[in-house]
Amino acid sequence: MKAESHAESPLLKSILAIDINKCTGCRNCELACSAAHTKSFNPSRSRIQILKNEDQNMVLPMVCLQCEEPLCEQACPNGAISYNEKGTLYVSSKVCIGCMNCVTACTFGGIEIDPMTLKAIKCDLCWGDPACVKACEYGAISMVEAEKEGLAARRKGVGVVNQTLGLKTGEV
Fold it and tell me: How far apart are CA 109 and CA 122, in angstroms?
């Protein structure tokens, strides 16, 4: 029996949509995210990562997509990945053991291991007020409602990433 998708559930309310055509790779989002979560300007501790390949003129922001059926949540042996009261999937650092099952399970690169704590980190939408959205001067990142239009905007961004990387996945 298929579980109800989180997009159809009243639980998931908002997601991030990224327009990579507007992203300059300035990395302000990484700095804002790390400052909001760790009180330091350390992009390696950010929940959003900007992948750059200047030889190919490629800039790709990678962030948790708040998937309808999150593989990271299913892969976590301790239940450290769950929903907060804002309806956002997040990692409880108190419960996470750093096993990396979630990192391996995420096909979109939306979850990382914090190099300082050695525990999983992923976007939690800053509990409803994303620092990355406020820091993006170019409007490349927006928080949208997890409804038909918002999901379509997210899919469009994921599709461009897949095309850029030459990936073939199911429907995007």
Answer: 10
- Successive 10-residue mean pLDDT values, the chain, 172 residues: 40 81 93 97 95 84 88 96 89 97 93 97 93 96 78 61 56 46
The matching CATH number, chosen from 3.40.1550.10, 3.40.630.30, 3.40.50.2000, 3.30.70.20, for 14-164 is 3.30.70.20
Task: Please give the backbone phi and psi of residue 142, each rounded to the nearest 5 degrees, phi first.
Answer: -140, 150
Task: Indicate the pTM of the whole model.
Answer: 0.79
Give the pair of three-digit tokens for residue 46. 């950010």
- Tell me which residue of 153, 143, 167 sits closest to 19, measured CA to CA: 153
- Of 42, 46, 44, the residue nearest 115 (C-alpha): 44
- Collapsed DSSP state (helix, strand, coil) of residue 30: helix
